[in-house]
Amino acid sequence: MSKKAKRAEAEAEREEKSPLCDRLSFAASESYKLLRSNLTFSLMGNEGCQIIGVTSAIRSEGKSTTSINLSYTLAETGKRVLTIDSDMRLPTINKRLNLRRAPGLSNLLAGISTMNESLQASGVSRNWYVLSAGDIPPNPSELLGSVRLVKLLEAVRKHFDYVILDLPPISIVSDALVVAKHTDGMLMVVRQNYTNQMELARSMRQLIYQQVKLLGFVQTYAATQDKRYGRRYGRYGYGYGYEKTSVSDTEGAYLLDKDEEDSSR
User: Per the CATH hierarchy, to which homologous superfamily does domain 29-264 belong?
Assistant: First the structure.
């Protein structure tokens, strides 16, 4: 195994050990609440259920951790939340939440299980539900691009306030782009001192080409000694669509709107 592959495996294991839900530190919990507030403002004016895709450029940037903690934070406000593990190649959400993997999304889209059979309570919040990835199929992209997925999303819109889709990395497979057009917006998770800039740029070009609404960037594993953290903790804005939200597994967050981010480079 190459050094790059070994590092990827090590980082994947590290993400699986990241704190979740009510085990978050105070600062990390506040960071996710800040992300929740920013999303609320970004989606202001949209009626009904909001479907939000969470992705990254490459593996092990923290997208699944972000999906879980964002879902939990939204559910804390009393909203009905559904988290769908849409990464049918490397599913992790069921393992992180100690839930069964199948039947799940793949079984549902293949027509071999029903929603009642596949849907699970999160076990954390009474108004938070999870649809695991299901059995690993040979054709994830085809299933995600099927009419059944469109009908599934139409159905869950009637019963939930938020649907969070944990999607595969954009630069690795096409799955996220197939689903992105059915969302109300996408969050791009970017890991500090890890994300490959070329892969991130390529992923952004693909989202723009697909005319997908970008809700913002979530920066994970942010260094707590970053001076910007101390200067910007607690600030937030809305309406730009390109705000940068930093969420650390140990500390708080900062936000930059597009103009402020350009001036800081």
Answer: P-loop containing nucleotide triphosphate hydrolases (3.40.50.300)
Q: Are 103 and 116 in contact (CB under 8 A)?
A: no
Sketch the domain layout of the chain as residue ranges.
29-264
Q: Has residue 189 got a pLDDT over 70?
A: yes
At 99 the pLDDT is 97
State the burial class of residue 132 (Cβ atoms within 10 Å of its Cβ: 0-12, 13-18, 19+).
buried
pLDDT tens digits for range 236-262: 222 223 334 444 332 333 333 333 334
N residues, the chain: 265
Q: Which two tokens stand for residue 258?
A: 């597009």
Whole-number mean pLDDT of the chain? 81
Q: How far is CA 148 from the centre of its chain?
A: 22
Tell me the H-state helices in the chain. Answer: 3-16, 26-42, 63-75, 93-96, 105-109, 115-118, 140-144, 147-157, 175-180, 197-209, 227-232, 258-264
Sheet strands side by side (includes 81-85): 120-121, 128-131, 81-85, 162-166, 50-56, 185-191, 214-220, 244-247, 255-256
211-230 pLDDT per residue, tens:
999 999 998 887 654 444 33
Whether residue 103 is preceded by a cis peptide bond, meaning omega within 30 degrees of 0, is yes
Give the C-alpha separation, 167 to 222, whole Å: 22
Phi, psi of 47, deg, nearest 5: -100, 150
Query: Could you tell me if 77 and 192 are in contact, meaning their C-beta atoms sit under 8 angstroms apart?
Result: no
**pLDDT tens digits for range 132-182:** 999 999 999 999 999 999 999 999 999 999 999 999 999 888 999 999 999
CA distances from 94 to 7, 86, 98, 126, 138 (A): 23, 11, 6, 17, 20
